Amino acid sequence: MAPPSCLLRVGWLPAALCALALALAPASDATSASLVGINYGRVGSNLPPPQAVLPLLEGLGIGRVRLYDADPAVLHAFAKTGVELFVGVPDQSLAGLADPGGADSWLRSNVMPFLPDTKIAALTVGNEVLTGNNSAVTRALLPAMQSLHGALAKLGLDKQIAVTTAHNLGVLGTSYPPSSGAFRRDLLPYICPILDYHARTGSPFLVNAYPYFAYSGDPKGIHLEYALLEAGYAGVPDPNSGLRYPNLLVAQVDAVYHAIAAANTAAARVVEVRISETGWPSSGDPGETAATPQNAARYNSNAMRLVAEGKGTPLKPTVAMRAYVFALFNENLKPGLASERNYGLFKPDGTPVYELSYKLPRDNSTFGGAGNSGWRFPGGGGGNVSGGYDNNGVNSGYYDISAASPDSAGPCRWSQAAVAGAMAVLVVAA
């Protein structure tokens, strides 16, 4: 069994978790019926061209896609399809976007030429920035988000396109039980003003949540059925809240809700947590014994069913979960363990890596003509090696929480200098 400090790994995940904040759905949410999306990463040398993605998405019944950059060929491919896009802003762009002029220029080059034919619902600024090792990018994160939001407001698009960022669960310093969820103390000077920003703009707080990492780190302390989201599992009670957690994914989400409430009570009333990445690898290195096609099929089928049914978490039962499955393709150029290259639902030639046992309902799709693309897989060979992730290409959705800062994060209380710095950062471009 994992130690109490390891909230994300155990099977106890609380539900009194965060008397938190979900009520405010972003104004940019154009397609409320489409709750399940997918991540389309392109860190591979053998991937098909973007037109080949359209029939795969239509076959899955998925109408929301998260991209990791604003590649023009990809944005053009989604024109007039009805697919709703989250478009990534790469980490290396953040410093230039902190300036309002840079944000305006970026939008005019990377967003405006594709509207309205391409349905862009949000910009995700950076990926897992706060748990990276680049302090300059960390400092630029919120100013870049604010500048982009301000530039969109000047164009009259701030109600149509949200601006947010995606975090991994390493931002938590305490995660067990979920009702004790708290952010790392060293990250509070960054997270607190980000929460204020989300509360003001109605944008969601995105998390990359991977029960796979938790299970792999503690296979004796976590039941596999609990990590795979199996409906028949009895669940785990949170000893503080009394809420019972049927699976590890909802426990991870509620731990984040609790952390938000502990850091910023006001933001907790209105900020919604959404899952920007979740998935399970189908293959891995010899030591990655849980990375099998069978487990991946079970996890992703169960995750799609859970989200598509419109269910909430034990803490937020009336707020439907939204999630993006990771990922569309296996990507052969991703660094790290072999599992990192085997998260895809599809091989590069368009054949399924495994069969899903769940079919998404028709109302999850937002397609309006993608099936007429006429594309058929010729056998792969797009050769696209860009369009991937930051953080050295690794989707590190879970960190060993016991190795994180042991201090529990209290409310957003900083020194006078820190408060002054945060206030400066919170000035939104007019």
UniProtKB/TrEMBL annotation:
Gene Ontology BP terms: carbohydrate metabolic process
Record-linked InterPro entries: GH (IPR017853), Glyco_hydro_17 (IPR000490), Glyco_hydro_17_plant (IPR044965)
Superkingdom of this protein's organism: Eukaryota
Enzymatic class: hydrolase
Listed GO MF terms: glucan endo-1,3-beta-D-glucosidase activity
Signal peptide stretch: 1-30
Source taxonomy: Eukaryota, Viridiplantae, Streptophyta, Embryophyta, Tracheophyta
Similarity annotation: Belongs to the glycosyl hydrolase 17 family.
The EC number(s) this enzyme carries: 3.2.1.39
Provenance organism: Oryza sativa subsp. indica (Rice)
PANTHER family with a match to the protein in the record: GLUCAN ENDO-1,3-BETA-GLUCOSIDASE BG1-RELATED-RELATED (PTHR32227)
Name listed for the protein in its UniProt record: glucan endo-1,3-beta-D-glucosidase
